[in-house]
Specification:
Radius of gyration: 24 Å
Number of helices: 15
Number of domains: 2
CATH topology of the largest domain: Carbamate kinase
Bound molecules: adenosine-5'-diphosphate, aspartic acid, magnesium ion
Structural class: alpha/beta
Largest sheet: 8 strands, mixed
CATH class of the largest domain: Alpha Beta
CATH architecture of the largest domain: 3-Layer(aba) Sandwich
Distance between the termini: 56 Å
Number of strands: 16
Length: 475
C-alpha cells in the first residue's frame, strides 16, 4: 500500500513571557485552538514561566555561597506562580495531581540547593539539574490546561528527545541520535491524536543526565525538534510583533521586519538582536523547514518570516538597512607594537591565548600595517584575557617587539544589517555621518567577513544615541 502523505506538521514555541501569567497562558491555549484546524500535527515547545529560570539559578548561586536563608522565599514564589496557573487553567478534577507534581519538582529544587550549600559549590551539571526544573514545571501545567480546553495533550520531558554532549549549561545536540529519539517519542503521541507539549531548553546526555542548551535555549529546542521530525514550519511566539528594526525597549518606533534572509537574520541575532536565538536558525534552514517569529499578544499580526532568496532589484542605501542592534558590556583589547610587523604567528598566538581563557570574540579589527590587533571581548573577561596575552607574549614585551597589551573602558558593538549593504556605495558613509552629526566618536569599524553587516564600536555612554541615529536611517 502506498504510504499516506504526512499530515502538515507545525512546531510552535512559546517563550517565558508568553506563559508567565494565567492570562498569558490562556492566550497560548487560544492560539493553539485556532491553529488546530490548519495543522493536524502540532507540537508545542514551552519555556519556563517568565522569571522562573532566574529564580532557580539565583537560589543555586546563593546556596553555593552557603546561604539558604532565602530559599523558603524562592520556594514560596515558585509555588505561587505555578499554582496561580493550575487554579485558573487546569480543570478541578486534574488540579490536585498537577499541583502535586509541581510541589515535587519544587522540593527537588530545595534538595538540590541544600546539597549545593553543603558542597559549597554548584557544578555545571548541578546547575543544569536546577535550571531544568522550570520547563519541567511549565509543561506539566500547559498539557493538562490544553486537555481541559478540549485539546488532548501530553507533556514530554525533552530528556526523552534531545540527545546532547556533556557540555553542561551549553550542551550541543547530536542530531542523528536526537532524530531517532524525538521521532520515537513524538510521533506516537501525534498518532494518538494528542498534542505533545515538550520542555524547551533541556536535553540529556546519551546516559540520561539532564543538560541545558544555554540560556534562552528554548528557541533552539523548537528548531531542533522541527528539523529532526521534520516539521513543515516552526513558529516562535514571543511578546513583540516578530523581529524588529531595533530593540523595542530602546527604540520606541521600532517596527516589524516582515522578511529576513538567512544571512540577515543570522547576523542580526549574532550581534545582539534577541529573537530568534542565534542557534535556532541553522537547523531549520538546513532541514528546509519554515521559520516565523510572531506575537502571542497580537496573534493576527504576521510577524517575521525567514526567506531564502535575496530580494531582487536594486535599492538605495536607506532601504538596504534593515535593522540595528547593540551588544553592550564589551571592551576592546589591543595588542600593539612595531616589532609585530611581519612576525608570523602573532594573530594565531593572540587568539590561542584568548581561547585559553574560554572567551568568545564577537569582533576583530586589524590595522593593515600589522602593527596592532584589536578585538572585543565581554567586559567581565577582559582582565583575564589581557593577563593571558601578557603571559603568552612575555618575551616579546621584554624585547619591545610588542609595546603594549591593553583594554579600553566599556564599549558597545553597534551593528546594522542588510543584504546588499556591502556592494552598495555610500551606505557605510551614511551610517558614519549619522553618528558624526551627533559627535559620537566611532572607536573602531568592522565589516567582518559577512557581507550583510557593518559593526561600529562606540563608548558605552554613546550606545543608545548611536542606535537611535542609525535607526533613523531605517525607519
Ligand atoms: P521569550 O520570553 O519569548 O523567549 P525574550 O524575552 O527572550 O522572549 O525575547 C523577546 C524580547 O526581545 C522582546 O520583548 C524584545 O524586547 C527583545 N528584543 C531585542 N531586540 C529585538 C529585536 N530586534 N526584535 C525583536 N525583539 C527584540
Ligand atoms: N527558561 C530558559 C531561560 O530562561 C530557556 C528559555 O526561556 O528559552 O534561559
Ligand atoms: Mg526567552
Amino acid at each position: 500500500m502506498a504510504s499516506q502523505p504526512k499530515p502538515k506538521t507545525l512546531v510552535m514555541k512559546f517563550g517565558g513571557s508568553s506563559v508567565g501569567t494565567p492570562k498569558a497562558m490562556q492566550e497560548v491555549i487560544d492560539i493553539i485552538q485556532q491553529s488546530r484546524a490548519d495543522w493536524p500535527n502540532m507540537i508545542i515547545v514551552v519555556s519556563a514561566l517568565a522569571g522562573v529560570t532566574n529564580l532557580l539559578l539565583d537560589g543555586a548561586a546563593q546556596a553555593a555561597k552557603g546561604s539558604t536563608e532565602k530559599l523558603p522565599e524562592a520556594v514560596e514564589r515558585l509555588r505561587q506562580l505555578h499554582y496561580a496557573i493550575a487554579d485558573t487553567l487546569v480543570a478541578p478534577d486534574g488540579r490536585a495531581s498537577v499541583k502535586h507534581e509541581v510541589v515535587e519538582l519544587i522540593a527537588e529544587f530545595g534538595n538540590l540547593c541544600h546539597a549545593i550549600s553543603i558542597l559549597g559549590e554548584a557544578s555545571p551539571r548541578a546547575l543544569d539539574a536546577v535550571a531544568s526544573l522550570g520547563e519541567r514545571m511549565s509543561v506539566r501545567l500547559l498539557a493538562p490546561a490544553l486537555s481541559g480546553a478540549g485539546l488532548p495533550a501530553a507533556y514530554v520531558d525533552a530528556t526523552r528527545c534531545i540527545v546532547t554532549d556533556r557540555r553542561f549549561q551549553n550542551a550541543h545536540p547530536d542530531f542523528a541520535a536526537t532524530a531517532e529519539k524525538s521521532r520515537a517519542t513524538i510521533w506516537p503521541i501525534l498518532e494518538a491524536g494528542k498534542i505533545p507539549v515538550v520542555t524547551g531548553f533541556i536535553g540529556a546526555t546519551p546516559d540520561g543526565i539532564t543538560t541545558t542548551l544555554g540560556r534562552d535555549g528554548s528557541d533552539f529546542s523548537a528548531a531542533i525538534v522541527g528539523a529532526v521530525l521534520p516539521a513543515d514550519d516552526v513558529w516562535i511566539w514571543t511578546d513583540v510583533n516578530g523581529v524588529m528594526t531595533a530593540d523595542p525597549r530602546v527604540i520606541q518606533n521600532a517596527c516589524t521586519i516582515p522578511e529576513l534572509t538567512y544571512r540577515e537574520m543570522s547576523e542580526l541575532v549574532y550581534f545582539g538582536g534577541k529573537k530568534p536565538h542565534p542557534k535556532a536558525i541553522r537547523p531549520v534552514v538546513e532541514a528546509g523547514v519554515g521559520l516565523r517569529i510572531c506575537n502571542t499578544f497580537n496573534p493576527t499580526h504576521p510577524g517575521t518570516r525567514l526567506i531564502n532568496e535575496k530580494p531582487n532589484g536594486k535599492k538605495n542605501g536607506d532601504e538596504i538597512l534593515k535593522a540595528v542592534t547593540a551588544i553592550r558590556g564589551q571592551r576592546l583589547v589591543t595588542v600593539e607594537g612595531r616589532g609585530m610587523l611581519g612576525v608570523p604567528g602573532v594573530a594565531a598566538r593572540t587568539f590561542g591565548a584568548v581561547a585559553s581563557t574560554g572567551t568568545s570574540v564577537p569582533l576583530i579589527t586589524q590595522a593593515s600595517s600589522e602593527q596592532s590587533i584589536c578585538f572585543s571581548v565581554p567586559s567581565s573577561a577582559a582582565d583575564n584575557v589581557v593577563a593571558a596575552l601578557q603571559k603568552a607574549f612575555a618575551t616579546e614585551l621584554v624585547d619591545h617587539d610588542i609595546d603594549r597589551i591593553w583594554a579600553t573602558d566599556d564599549v558597545s558593538l553597534v551593528t546594522t544589517v542588510g543584504e546588499g549593504l556591502r556592494e552598495t556605495p555610500g551606505v557605510a558613509g551614511r551610517v558614519c555621518n549619522a553618528l558624526g552629526q551627533l559627535q559620537i566618536n566611532i572607536i573602531a569599524i568592522a565589516q567582518g567577513s559577512s557581507e550583510v553587516s557593518i559593526s561600529l564600536v562606540v563608548s558605552a555612554a554613546d550606545t543608545d544615541a548611536a542606535v537611535k541615529a542609525i535607526h533613523s536611517l531605517i525607519v
